[in-house]
Sequence to fold (516 residues):
Amino acid sequence: MPAAPPALQLTDLAKTYATGVEALKGVSLEIGDGELFGLLGPNGAGKSTLIHCVTGLANPTGGEARIFGNDTRGHYEQARAAVGLAPQDINLDTFLTVFETLDYPGGYFGMAKRDRRERAAELLDAFSLTDKRDTRTRFLSGGMKRRVVLARALMHRPRLLILDEPTAGVDVELRLELWQYVQRINGEGTSVLLTTHYLEEAEQLCDHIAFIDHGLIVDRGTPSELTQRYAVSSLEDAYLQLIGRTELSRAIATDTGELTS
Amino acid sequence: MTTRQIRFFSLLRRELYRFWKIKRQTVAAPLLESFLYISVFGAALGSRVGNLHGVDYVVFIVPGLVLMAWAMNAYMNNASSILQQKMERAIDDQLTSPASPLELLMAFSLGGFVRGGMVSMLTLTGSALLVDVPFEHPFVLALSLALSGMFFAQLGVFTGLRAVNWDDITFIQTFLLQPLIFVGGVFYSATLLPAPFDTITKFDPIYYMIGLVRYGTIGFHEIDITLALGGLFLVTAALVALNVRLFTTGWRLRA
Fold:
């Protein structure tokens, strides 16, 4: 029996913007089916560009991306049908209510009306949005909007869920709820690509992690492989070593020492 | 329904819902505008002008107003819908979906096409109730209105894709479309104009669209109907092809 294709396979993926900025310089990466994969890197490293190239929001200028074996350009229909994206910036249609925000995209992915209603009700419940069902999204708080963005990404039951900084600016409660939910659907077989600045959480959640910097994958491995490789106790220290900012780790340690002494 | 049909109708439903949700602004206001034109120009001016090419002046201006209603609403709807969704990045929902460039284009186009058609048909029906509007060549009328509506719907899509702010849309509307529509002969016949204005009018493409709709309604024409219909079909098809290409490449939509 042939091996299942990886959830995401990038081969020399490159993106140079019209401004001349080289955001991706030939990224090769593989995320296995069912894996929870963390992509970590400083601001401007190329994380969002990589996600945009995979989801069709940006046109790669070189290389290729395959989602479950489907080329994102040649077979974009099959490739995109398998992906759910929760973008970093909240991009809700202010004309629509919370329910409509789930219902329309469900339709864009070919879900039948009854299925959309059932799935929307399920997600509204899962993200504590049921009482906001008929509220227009423009009247929601920041945290509520973030919940809607996450629910929308899950609406069509994607096989690959892409979460771009999903917990940026959200409270602890939602963060914990989200991670629980992500772990649950990952356990049920959904592959997840996650970018986050919360390295501790990435260390706990992710099966594999890749560090990206200046448009290149600079290292990858399991969280324990990475901490062993850099001979440090946490992923955060490994990350700081990798980007050449170990003095920040020492500064935190010194500050903590001063506070506790 | 197949997956593809559900997808297309969801994309289209979204566009129709958008204008219907604010129908006072998108349907009622332009309808009122059309009837103000009929009242002010038709009733007030018509009593002085009297007959024009064998029909009452108020009847003579109805075809131009019907076309203008479809043109302006189709254009504004599509241009503003696309720009607003681009600015909010809500359009990423459609762009990350499995929809093809043609499906996206047709859904965006038909939103304005339907809105324009609705205002236009209500204007025509209302006019027919108020004054005696003949329908001399219904097939030409339907075809020329539909082709003109699609042309302006495509123009709206193109402008929406190109625009980076609201000024880009209103500039085209105020400084290009409205002058061309008025100069195109909504309120007069080009044969009545002195030289060189009668010749200048003939370089206005909207003059031919109004001519077609006027021929379909009251039977009067000062243009070659077959040539005008053929030309309108070709420029509309060219604009559709251009927009398909722009959606395929992701011009000003995908980075």
